[in-house]
Amino acid sequence: MALHVAVEVVRESETSLTSQIQHFIKKEISEGILHPGTRLPSSRRLADDLAVSRSVVVEAYGQLVAEGYLEAVQGAGTRVVRHLDAEPAVVPALLDEGRIPAVRWDLRPGGRNFPAFPRREWLGCYQRVLHAAGPADHDYPPLAGAPALRVELGHYLGRLRGVRTTADQVMVVAGFAQALGLLCAVLPDLGIGALGIEDPGHPGQRRFVHGSGLRTVPLPVDEEGIDVDALAASGVRAVLVTPAHQYPTGVTLSARRREALVRWARERDGWVIEDDYDGGLWYERGATRPLALQRTAPDRVVHAGTASKSLAPGLRLGWLAAPRPLLDRLLRARARHDLGTETLTQLAFAEFLRSGLFDRHLRRLNALCRSRRETLDEAVRGHLPGAEVVGRAAGLHAYVRLPRDTDEAALVAGALRRSVLVRGGAAFHVRPGGGAPALVVGHAHLPRAGVAEAVREVAEAVREVAAVRRSPASAGSSPASQDRRWS
């Protein structure tokens, strides 16, 4: 293999070239720049790259092998020896929740909670794009995104979500996180220093907004969605909402609240960021997904979507539709941070949309999610008396409301002891004790039998928690805590 390695040599130095190569590689290994197991180029290749005699490199490699820095394996070339038995620890990513215990059933929303990726169809699209790509497709991409994808997104958002937009008002981004980051960067230029957020809502987004320098103002959510009266009383001029399928409760913003929200935006000179995070995933029988909020006020609502739930978060593909003046501000903000989203993936997604394969994938995915949601509903009814799956049948998660006397924290801990990792509703509230006890269950990635078994394990955890409360050790606790029961 024609491998490369960066080696610095100084020909005018009194130190021999062999010693320079030897000392440089040794230093790179000692400082962790050349990792254990890294393959190095052959002596002939490195000599050619450095324009030195091959014997110079052969001698340097030989000395490093003798000192235990390199190993020469017949048929496998020369590589850095594996000094360490284990791989070096990886620093957790920003907003990562830390070390996740190994469990049999991971029910966290977003905890690798996505169904199988359509590999064959995606590969076909990518191959066609790669075959047809010209020199311009390998250049730096336009900041707003590949024109072919913006056109297809305009078509897709119009026919599936009713979004009022054109290709020149669409921007392709690296997932919703980048869209939100850009919006947080331009809102202060509009005189906005605070962002209203739903409570309960996405805790990661809340931290992200704080990290971007904006103040967050939590606003309550009920069975009709976000409380617009509370929004009006808060004094903020921008709000982040999930109107179609509220995260995490699953409720849909009522028609009355939608009208009130648009009226607030116009009267307040405000902005609404519509996070349509699971836009194509709607499988409630007898009901169609509500159209985008943006269509009622395209001059005041920024519609943002992502392929993270419908395809895979690793693609880092998202989009937003915004009024042209605001989009120009977003593009200027982006120019300060990156040079656009990777082109070939954009073109592959454009082909995926244009060919109808994405729509076919969504139909399959919705059928799959519906069967698993129905299994979850049945398992909760059968094993968790008093609990209820609420919200619309959509997305990759469900909100399971528990009896009000449930000790949510004890139940979550008990489920973990039974190898079920699940998030309690309290984790999504800004204020502790802000809502009734609940579980937020990611279910779409599990087989139907797995969904049922995981719920049975949660039910066993319920019984264990109840048994602990009835034990003599609980006799000293308060009467109120003793009276708590699973009803």
What does this structure look like?
The protein is an alpha/beta fold and 487 residues long. It has three domains: 17-80, Orthogonal Bundle (Arc Repressor Mutant, subunit A); 119-355, Aspartate Aminotransferase, domain 2, CATH 3.40.640; 360-482, Aspartate Aminotransferase, domain 1, CATH 3.90.1150. It contains 15 helices and 17 strands. The chain has helices spanning 17-30, 43-50, 54-66, 119-132, 147-161, 175-186, 203-211, 228-234, 255-268, 324-335, 343-354, 357-383, 408-417, 448-470, 479-482, and strands spanning 39-40, 70-73, 77-80, 105-106, 170-173, 194-199, 215-222, 225-226, 238-241, 271-276, 301-306, 318-321, 388-390, 397-401, 420-421, 423-424, 438-442. It has an eight-stranded mixed sheet with strand order 5-12-11-10-9-6-7-8. The protein has a four-stranded antiparallel sheet with strand order 13-14-17-16. It is globular.
Concise synopsis of the structure shown:
By secondary structure, the chain is of the alpha/beta class. It has 3 domains: 17-80, Winged helix-like DNA-binding domain superfamily/Winged helix DNA-binding domain (Arc Repressor Mutant, subunit A, Orthogonal Bundle), CATH 1.10.10.10; 119-355, 3-Layer(aba) Sandwich (Aspartate Aminotransferase, domain 2), CATH 3.40.640.10; 360-482, Aspartate Aminotransferase, domain 1, CATH 3.90.1150.10. Helices cover 40% and strands 14% of the residues.
List its salient traits.
487 residues, alpha/beta, Arc Repressor Mutant, subunit A, Aspartate Aminotransferase, domain 2, Aspartate Aminotransferase, domain 1, eight-stranded mixed sheet, four-stranded antiparallel sheet, 15 helices, 17 strands, 40% helix, globular
